[in-house]
Amino acid sequence: MTRIIIIGGGFAGLKLAEVLNNTSYHVLLIDKVNHHQFQPLFYQVATAGLEPSSISFPFRWIFHHSKNVRIRYAEVQQVVSAENKIKTDIGEFNYDHLVLATGATTNFFGNKNLETWSYPMKSTSEAINLRQHVLQNFEEALVASEAKKEALMNFVIVGGGPTGVELSGAFAEMRRHVFPNDYPELDFSKMKIIMVESSPKTLGNMSEKSSSKSRQYLEELGVQVMTNTQVKDYDGSKVLLGDGSSIPSNTVVWTAGIKGNLIEGINKEIVVRGNRLKVDRFSRIEGYANIYAIGDIANMVTDKYPNGHPQVANVALGQAKVLGKNFKNILSNKPLIQYEYHDKGSMATVGKHKAVADLPLVSFQGFFAWFIWMALHLVLLMGMKNKIFVFIDWVIGYFSNDSTLRLIFTPHAKQNQKMVNVHNS
Ligand SMILES: Cc1cc2nc3c(=O)[nH]c(=O)nc-3n(C[C@H](O)[C@H](O)[C@H](O)COP(=O)(O)OP(=O)(O)OC[C@H]3O[C@@H](n4cnc5c(N)ncnc54)[C@H](O)[C@@H]3O)c2cc1C
C-alpha cells in the first residue's frame, strides 16, 4: 500500500486527508494538536464570544470510520528525504509521499521582547491565553494604583489586517457593552483601544472602499487608529513607537506578521520570503520528487500570482483538493492537473452590523456584509454541533450584547512572568 504522510491538519492537511479517505492509499495525518482549529474565529474566543470547543474538531472523530486514514498526535521535527522518513517526538515514520501542510506561525521579525511580552493569536490556546490575560488585567486594575491603571486599561493591537481589525472592533464592543457591567468600579471612558499599523491603511489588501470603511467603523467604535506608525519595542509595560513616543500598556496583541512553519531537513535554498517553500503547479517542492507543500507554507508562483498566493483558507483548501485529485489520478493513470486560484473575494467584520466585503464583481459594506460574513463562517465551520453552538452563541450575543464565557481557568504563563518581574523589581 502506498503510504502518504500529511503533516498538519489545518485547512489544507485536513481537506487532503478527507479527499484521500477511503482510497487505496495508506494515509497518516500527523499534527502537534489533536484537533482542527478554525482560525478565522480565534478572535471571538479571545474576546469571550465563543467557546474554544465550538471552533475545534478532534481529528480522531472525523476519521473514526475511515479504513485508511490514521492519526498521530505528534510534533514533526525533521524530514530525512534521503531515507523517505520523518522524525517526530514519538518516533520515526516512513513515507512514499510526504505532504507538508504545516501552516504559519506569528512572525515577530526577530524582536525577542515583542515575542516575550506581546500576545500572538495563531492557535486556540493562544486565543484562550489572550482571553485570560484580558480578564486578569481588569481584576488587577481594580486594586492597582492610579499610576498603574493606565497601562492596565490600554490595549494596543499591532497590525491593521483582518485579525487586527476584527479584534480591535470586538474589544471596542466589549468596552461599550460588557466590561462596564462586569467591573463597575472601573472607569471605562479611560480604556483606550489603539490599533497600530505601519502602512497607510487598515485592511490594505482590500479595495479602497472597504479599507476606508473599516477605518471609519473602527473610529465610530472609539478605536484609536494609528496608521503609518511602527511598533519598535515592548517591555511588557510600555510600547515604543517608531517616532520615539511610547504608550503605557499591559496588553499588546501582535497580529502584524506570519512566517511558515518550516521543518528541519528541507533544503534551505528553496525557502523564500516569509519562510514559504517553493512549489510547482502540482504542489511538489522544488528539487524533491515525492515531497509536497500546500496551504500557507507553500509558495506557488503563477502568472496571476508572481509572489505566491495569499495565505488564506480558500487557497489551502483548493491546493489540497487538487493534490488529492492528483494522487487519485496517479492510481487511475490519468494526467495530473495544475492548481489555479480563483479568488472568490475577501471579507472582514469590525462589529455588529459593521463588515466589509469585496467580491469579484461587487464591493459592499454594512449590515449585509456582516450578515454574509456570519453565514459564510457558519458554513465553513466543521461539524453540525459546532455550527449549532456557534449559531446559538451568536443569536444570544446579538440580542444581549453579552456572553457568559468570561472565565479564567488557570493563571497563564505570561501573567506569571510579569508577576515575577513585578515582585523582583
Ligand atoms: C486569527 C486568524 C484569522 C484568520 N482569518 C481568516 C479568514 O477570515 N479567512 C481566510 O481565508 N483565512 C483566514 N486566516 C488564514 C487561514 O486560517 C490560513 O490561511 C489557513 O489556516 C492555512 O491553512 P493551512 O492548512 O496551510 O495551515 P493551518 O490551518 O495553520 O494548519 C497547520 C497545522 O499544522 C500543524 N503543525 C505545524 N507544524 C507542525 C509540526 N512540526 N508537526 C506537526 N504538526 C504541525 C499545526 O498544529 C496546524 O494544525 C486567518 C488566520 C488567523 C491566524
What is the compact description of this entry?
With 425 residues, the protein is an alpha/beta fold.
Write up what this structure looks like:
The chain has 425 residues and is α/β, with parallel strands linked by helices. It has helices at 11-20, 42-46, 59-62, 112-117, 124-143, 146-153, 162-177, 179-182, 208-220, 313-331, 367-380, 384-400, 413-424, and strands at residues 3-7, 26-31, 35-37, 56-58, 69-73, 76-80, 85-88, 91-94, 97-100, 104-106, 154-158, 192-196, 224-226, 231-234, 238-241, 246-248, 251-254, 258-260, 271-272, 276-279, 291-293, 298-300, 346-351, 354-358, 363-365. It has two domains: 3-106 and 258-331, FAD/NAD(P)-binding domain (3-Layer(bba) Sandwich), CATH 3.50.50.60; 127-253 and 352-424, FAD/NAD(P)-binding domain (3-Layer(bba) Sandwich). 35% of the residues lie in helices and 23% in strands. The strands form eight sheets. Strands 5-2-1-9-21 form a five-stranded parallel β-sheet, with helices on one face. The chain has a four-stranded parallel β-sheet with strand order 13-12-11-17. Strands 6-7-8 form a three-stranded antiparallel β-sheet, with no helix packed on it. Helix 1 (11-20) runs parallel beside helix 10. The radius of gyration is 22 Å and the shape is globular. The model is unreliable at 419-425 (pLDDT under 50). Flavin-adenine dinucleotide is lined by residues 7-13, 30-33, 37, 39-40, 42-43, 75-76, 101-103, 121-122, 162-163, 261, 263, 295-297, 311-314, 316.
